[in-house]
Write a structure and sequence with these properties.
- It contains 10 helices and 16 strands.
- With 398 residues, it is an alpha+beta fold.
- It has 2 domains: 174 residues, no CATH class; 155 residues, 2-Layer Sandwich (Nucleotidyltransferase, domain 5).
- The protein has a 7-stranded antiparallel sheet. A 5-stranded mixed sheet has the order 10-9-8-11-14. Strands 12-13 form a two-stranded antiparallel sheet.
- It is globular.
Length: 398
């Protein structure tokens, strides 16, 4: 299987400056290639493709030795492929009748990754294998950059990417032929219900805490954002204020990923089969629709309450958790089943009666037919498990 490994880079001052310049030159190449395509189509109706722009790279490099010429040819081709991928996605959306979203120029804060498509072509992982105490990655134009390798790399390194996150630099290795780490069977299955009060509630009655990382940092983040709003655009103080806003956001992201990894690993180790709701999180976190009153104004639509709920859902990180859970389940040889979430929280797990009145409170479920009384999330998780088992049995029978 294919898997990625991400490690923190520890560049020197000169190497950090070279990495920033490498990122800037690749951003300029991306924007120039985009402008080339736009101009050619607008003036002559000609569609420029990746092959045309890749053929021009040697002329660009020859005429700009101090800039584009010092970076890897293959990494620049990867940047052009990135633009070509954006155009293909644009045309796919047009054909599907969705909002097109034409590819846009990338500002300095919106281009943070450079990719080398092949290990050994302009880059080299573990470039000093004789060094016993440290690992290095060699990047053309930058040098041997020290890597904080906190775990072993498995499989064969195929592509190497360098990514900037705030003031930090990371290297991402995409590896093929990574062996699966199949876990022994434990003979247990579970349904899980995602929530805000508890991140995960299992059909066994276990509640995994929602850490609410963004809520904890909200006060410090709000102060940093107020300070940013007072700074003059383009000034050095504003750039420093932007960094102070980005730092807590990056920390929250790392904390959320760490919590999701730990929760997913715990579920995968304890269960052979896990059923979860197939949630459409993007639709669930849309802003409240306005309600015109017919006189040019608007009626109350609960926008403030909906915004608070959206913020709590996004802070819980359901999408991140489900993505990590699917990766860990695949690696461990576990079965993960997504079920239709409709009415799982309204249906009684004892008698099967579905009614809105069964949910008397956020955490209380009391069936109006049979009187079954339990935690609402546990009741929903049991229904999710049953739906998952039914889907599995149907698939096996077919």
């Amino acid at each position: 299987m294919r898997r990625s490994f991400k490690f923190l880079l520890r560049p020197t001052g000169k190497q950090a400056a070279a990495l920033r310049q490498c990122l800037e030159d690749h951003r300029e190449l991306y924007n120039a290639a985009l402008e080339h395509r736009r101009t050619a189509y607008r003036r002559a109706g000609v569609r420029v493709r990746y092959g045309d722009q890749s053929a021009e790279l040697k002329h660009i490099r020859a005429g700009d030795l101090d800039g584009q010429g010092r970076w890897s040819f293959s990494s620049q081709q990867a940047t052009l492929r990135r633009l070509d991928k954006a155009f293909r996605a644009f045309f796919d959306r047009v054909k599907a009748g969705r909002t097109p979203g034409f590819p846009r120029f990338r500002g300095r804060g919106w281009f943070d990754t450079v990719e080398w498509p092949k290990d050994g072509d302009g880059c080299r992982w573990d470039s000093q294998p004789h060094h016993r105490t440290a690992t290095y990655v060699r990047l053309q134009g930058v040098g041997h950059v020290r890597v904080h390798r906190h775990r072993r790399v498995l499989g064969t390194v195929k592509t190497i990417s360098v990514k900037r996150e705030g003031a930090r630099w990371f290297v991402v290795l995409s590896c093929d032929d990574v062996p699966t780490e199949t876990l022994p069977a434990v003979g247990a299955a579970a349904g899980i219900d995602l929530g805000v009060a508890s991140l995960v509630t299992t059909s066994d009655g276990e509640h995994l805490t929602n850490p609410r990382h963004l809520a904890v940092t909200a006060g410090r983040l709000a102060a940093a954002q107020r300070d940013l709003a007072r700074k003059k655009r383009g000034s050095k103080r504003r750039r420093n204020a932007v960094a102070r806003v980005a730092a807590p956001h990056a920390k929250v992201r790392r904390q959320r990923l760490d919590s999701a990894h730990k929760a997913a690993l715990r579920l995968v180790r304890d269960h052979d089969m896990i059923a979860h709701e197939a949630l459409k999180i993007t639709n669930m976190t849309k802003r409240a629709a306005p309600k015109p009153d017919g006189d040019g104004g608007h009626l109350p639509n609960g926008a403030a309450a909906k915004s608070g709920l959206n913020r709590s859902i996004l802070d819980a990180g359901w999408g991140v958790f489900l993505t990590i859970l699917s990766h860990k389940a695949e690696s461990a040889g576990r079965e993960l089943i997504a079920v239709n979430p409709a009415n799982t929280s309204r249906t009684c797990a004892e008698c099967g009666r579905c009614a809105k009145d069964n949910r008397t409170a956020q955490a209380v479920f009391r069936c109006t037919a049979c009187g079954h009384n339990t935690h609402a999330d546990v009741n929903a998780a049991i229904n999710i498990l049953r739906a998952g088992l039914a889907l599995r049995d149907a698939a096996q029978a077919a």
